[in-house]
Predict the structure.
Amino acid sequence: MSRPPPGHRHAQTRRWSRTVRRRESPCSRSAFAFGELHAEEFLQGLDRPTFILRLAHHYDQVNFLHPFREGNGRTQRLFWDRIAGDAGWYLNWEAVRGETNDHACRAASEGRDFGPMYRMLDQITLAATEVEAADAEGPSSEHWRRVPPAQGRR
């Protein structure tokens, strides 16, 4: 049987499958990543710098899992929104450009350099009380018009 030409859908599938097999067992890796997050009480009760530092670490851990072919970034943003909201923080993802996120993720995963990830998260992390207070004031402030209201928080 001949090989499909480079770039063919099946060639990409095989390449992706080999990459997954080289990694640790997905179950053990996810158990470790989420177990570690659980042990840190889902980042609740941390001051802002510590929250951002630990979020950067856990963001990289979950990003490494990469369980879906498509939608990993969107799924992670929803997941981290929930973790942040439950911990009293708000993540304004609209302030992040795709290139900035890609660079931060690459630096963390390939070079173990969490500086870009920390700086990115530092720019978008707000105290949930700030966002709620601004929502109560209404859309009079130009700054807060760009911040979407926090939804789905307890």
The longest helix spans residues 48-65. The two ends are 57 Å apart (CA to CA). Residues 8-22, 149-154 have pLDDT under 50 and may be disordered.
